[in-house]
């Protein structure tokens, strides 16, 4: 009995150590495989990005102390193939569209850098990783720290980012290369409480990617 | 020589019952038991030290956490273990962070969906993948943002091991399992000590 328990304890200890090293190895191998697979060269094409602005006065939409907050929603076309993000250790891919823009902080005079998620999806199978969407609506209504969002003629850029959730190991992140450098000028002010805004889109010529 | 003599003496003269009592009162046996006790203590202390050292290196109040709720499904399920890192000055959009709100004792694991930063500070809005709404309802005192320096006490999720943490959930939530588990450990230890 004595030797049996001692042996099983020692065996269990060895097993734990071995599994720990194996997990780290699997994690590193997966990262290496993704890097070699060229996941940082995946391109995404955006088009027809149309913002609409509304006022909201609930806390859920960023309004505090009764000051209403300017919220933006977007319609957009997107074409991207994320099949390359899937391998034997991919549990799911979280794909998210963000808008990024800079502002000047009114209090400190510092430059603020801002990113907001306007749309996301969870992909659990490579069969569903090809995303082609026409006139898709953003899932989330987004707002800035300041109460006015669009009224400063603010220019935002749109991009698709991804996060790979492995079955075991390290989470990895990346951003797709935009085939069209899409910049959108947010309209100046919501005209009414319901719907508003004319879109202004400035689009630089498509940039060829070497993928 | 001495031990041989002892062995001979005991096998010849001492009856079984007396030998048993003598065995437990034997200073050598007592010393052995104390050493065993010490080794068990060492095991617990070294485990605790390793966890705390990892916390210092990762700059995190809890460098490894077990997922308790389903708000991040299907990415994280109940019982999954997450490894955290809290040394970056700013967190990125889409990162999964572990934060504390003053009103709740259990830290929350959710994803960053709004991110604003300048040279001084960073403000964040979070949301669970499996939740319809953002986390503003969870924040304290009518706040609508988390402060990166103040509230992200756990850090950013970097590593993932599925299911292995379920044993701690069972221990915490099921008293019968707790007694069975701890009793079993004790029994196993006593048996291996004999």
Task: Describe this structure as you would to a colleague.
The complex is a heterodimer of chains A (211) and B (194). Chain A folds into two domains: 1-36; 40-203, no CATH class. Helices cover 17% and strands 43% of the residues of chain A. Chain A is built from one helix and eleven strands; from the N terminus they run αβββββββββββ. In chain A, the strands form two sheets. In chain A, strands 3, 4, 6, 8, 10 and 11 form a six-stranded antiparallel beta sheet that branches. Chain A is elongated, with a radius of gyration of 23 Å. The N and C termini of chain A lie far apart (63 Å). Chain B has 194 residues and is of the alpha+beta class. Helix content of chain B is 44%, strand content 19%. A seven-stranded antiparallel beta sheet of chain B has the order 1-2-7-3-4-5-6. In chain B, strand 3 (96-99) and strand 4 (108-117) form a beta hairpin. In chain B, helix 5 crosses helix 6. The radius of gyration of chain B is 26 Å and the shape is elongated. In chain B, 25% of the residues are buried. Residues 7-16 of chain B have low confidence and may be disordered. The interface between A and B is large, with 42 and 35 residues.
Strand order of the largest sheet of chain B: 1-2-7-3-4-5-6
In round numbers, the mean pLDDT of chain B is 85
- Largest interface here, residues on each chain? A-B, 42 and 35 residues
Q: What's the total count of β strands of chain B?
A: 7
Let me know the CATH homologous superfamily of the largest domain in chain B.
Answer: Umud Fragment, subunit A
- Secondary-structure element order of chain A, N to C: HEEEEEEEEEEE
Average predicted local confidence, pLDDT of chain A: 85
- The coarse overall form of chain A would be elongated
Count of folded domains of chain B = 2
Shape of chain B: elongated
Biased composition (Polar residues) (chain A): 201-211
Subcellular location (chain A): Endoplasmic reticulum membrane
Membrane topology (chain A): Single-pass type II membrane protein
Family (chain A): Belongs to the SPCS3 family.
């Amino acid at each position: 009995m004595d030797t049996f328990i001692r042996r099983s304890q020692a065996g269990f200890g060895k097993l734990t150590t071995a599994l720990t090293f194996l997990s780290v190895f699997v994690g590193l191998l997966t990262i290496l495989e993704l890097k070699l697979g060229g996941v940082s060269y995946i391109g995404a094409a955006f088009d027809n990005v149309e913002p609409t602005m509304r006022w909201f006065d609930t806390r859920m939409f960023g309004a505090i102390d009764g000051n209403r907050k300017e919220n933006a929603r977007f319609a957009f076309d997107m074409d991207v193939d994320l099949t390359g993000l899937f391998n034997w250790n991919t549990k799911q891919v979280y794909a998210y569209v963000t808008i990024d823009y800079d502002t000047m902080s009114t209090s400190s005079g510092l430059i603020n850098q801002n990113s907001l998620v306007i749309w996301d999806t969870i992909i659990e199978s490579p069969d569903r990783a090809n995303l082609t969407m026409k006139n898709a609506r953003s899932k989330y209504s987004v707002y800035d720290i300041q109460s006015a969002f669009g009224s400063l003629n603010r220019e935002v850029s749109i991009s698709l980012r991804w996060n790979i959730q492995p079955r075991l190991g390290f989470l990895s992140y990346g951003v797709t290369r935009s085939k069209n450098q899409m910049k959108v000028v947010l309209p100046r002010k919501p005209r009414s409480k319901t719907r508003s805004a004319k879109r202004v889109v400035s689009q630089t010529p498509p940039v060829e990617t070497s993928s | 020589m001495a031990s041989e003599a002892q062995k001979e003496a005991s096998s010849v003269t001492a009856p079984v019952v007396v030998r048993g009592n003598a065995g437990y009162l034997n200073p050598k046996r007592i010393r052995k038991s104390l050493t065993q006790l010490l080794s068990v203590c060492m095991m617990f202390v070294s485990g605790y030290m390793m966890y705390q050292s990892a916390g210092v290196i990762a700059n995190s109040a809890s460098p490894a956490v077990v997922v308790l709720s389903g708000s991040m499904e299907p990415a994280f399920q109940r019982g999954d273990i997450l490894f955290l890192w809290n040394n970056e000055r700013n967190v990125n959009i889409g990162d999964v962070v572990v934060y504390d709100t003053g009103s709740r004792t259990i830290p929350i694991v959710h994803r960053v969906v709004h991110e604003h930063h300048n040279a001084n500070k960073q403000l964040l809005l979070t949301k669970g993948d499996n939740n319809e709404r953002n986390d503003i309802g969870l924040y304290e005192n009518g706040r609508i943002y988390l402060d990166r320096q103040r509230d992200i006490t756990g850090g950013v999720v970097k590593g993932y091991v599925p299911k292995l943490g379920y044993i701690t959930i069972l221990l915490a939530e099921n008293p019968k399992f707790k007694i069975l588990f701890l009793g079993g450990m004790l029994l196993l230890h006593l048996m291996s000590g004999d």
